[in-house]
């Protein structure tokens, strides 16, 4: 991934859908080149968000943006091609919904996308340890998926430490993404724990100015030793 790290990835789930194009432009203007799309089906998580058509509309509006598609849905294999065709650059699937996870990761790559594996707060890192060498991103949910604006779960830091150990022991290179409850107060600690991609929803889109808030978050990250913003 040819991006300066850590990355601030605004979660469009928290955006004002009536002003989606405007808010996407505000994100890009502030230097947030990743756009995080949370796809929810009302089954795996208790909410419904949007599908491939909206992802395609966003991609067509901002073709240079990196489309980070997070499938919080049952039977994700059925929709991999649709989201790839819509413009997804990376597709992350939940280990909890994939009985044949390795095959699903292969299907994502065959569709022409980078691949990520995601786990819920109650799922241990050890459950995906043997797939980490095959993915580009390990996405750690730091809230229970389904709704924005939730409080960060503090036990997430233990998982981040576990990932650092696995990366070192197995000498593998994947990026760590965190999704849920990211804000001014915890960005520094998250980056110090090895997070490369910080998904921020309510923190960004509930601010008086989307672009100013992203600039603030990037500024915080840039003062963390070892960061490359």
| Name of the level-1 CATH class | Alpha Beta
Structural class: alpha/beta
Give average pLDDT, whole number.
93
Distance between the termini: 14 Å
Morphology call: globular
Roughly how much helix do the residues carry, as a percent range? 25-40%
Percent range for β-strand residues: 15-25%
| Spatial order of strands in the largest sheet | 1-8-7-6-5-4-3-2
Per DSSP E runs of 2 or more residues, the count of β-strands stands at: 8
Q: Given the structure, what is the number of helices?
A: 8
The CATH H-level superfamily is: Aldolase class I
CATH architecture classification: Alpha-Beta Barrel
What features would you describe in this structure?
Strand 6 (137-141), helix 5 (156-170) and strand 7 form a beta-alpha-beta unit. The protein has 229 residues and is of the alpha/beta class. The chain has one domain: Alpha-Beta Barrel (TIM Barrel), CATH 3.20.20. It has helices at residues 20-29, 52-61, 80-86, 101-110, 156-170, 187-192, 202-205, 210-222, and strands at residues 7-10, 34-40, 66-72, 90-94, 114-119, 137-141, 175-179, 197-200. It starts with 6 loop residues before the first strand and ends in a 7-residue tail after the last helix. It has an eight-stranded parallel sheet with strand order 1-8-7-6-5-4-3-2.
